[in-house]
Amino acid sequence: MSRDLVNEMSAAQPGAEWSDPWGGGHDCWKVGGKIFALVGAQGKHVSVKTDSVETAAFLIETGVAERAPYLHRSWVALPLDSAPDELAHRIRMSYRMVRASLPKKVQATLSGS
Asked: What angle do CA 74, 76, 79 make, to 5 degrees?
């Protein structure tokens, strides 16, 4: 799995927008102004939101992910060389949770489901 493929998966989410808010080569993917996926400047992991601190802890304990630095405990960092289906699933789930948390008016302005 490469950074390019993670960016491709993230870009495919309806209403996804890319930015580099801190400069230095970060790939920050947002929906409605909120982050759902983040690849740091060093590009070894993609950080995504999980549904709970417990899910994040489980993924960390089982070796699927690491703690995502600088983010809430419900976020995890998956290595870019993780199984492609795992990465795709986690990016989609993170996107869906973040999108669902947006105000209904903002959600209505976004394309796709």
From this structure: 170
34-39 sheet: strands from edge to edge: 16-19, 27-31, 34-39, 45-49, 75-79, 66-67
Parallel/antiparallel/unpaired status of strands 75-79 and 66-67: antiparallel
Ordered structural domains, the chain, with CATH:
3-108 (3.90.1150.30)
Helix (H, G, I), strand (E, B) or coil at 75: strand
Q: Tell me the C-alpha distance between 73 and 66, whole Å.
A: 11
107 burial type by CB count under 10 A (0-12 exposed, 13-18 middle, 19+ buried): middle
The reported pLDDT for the residue numbered 23 is: 87
- CA dist 73 and 52 (Å) reads 8
pTM of the complete model beyond 0.85: yes
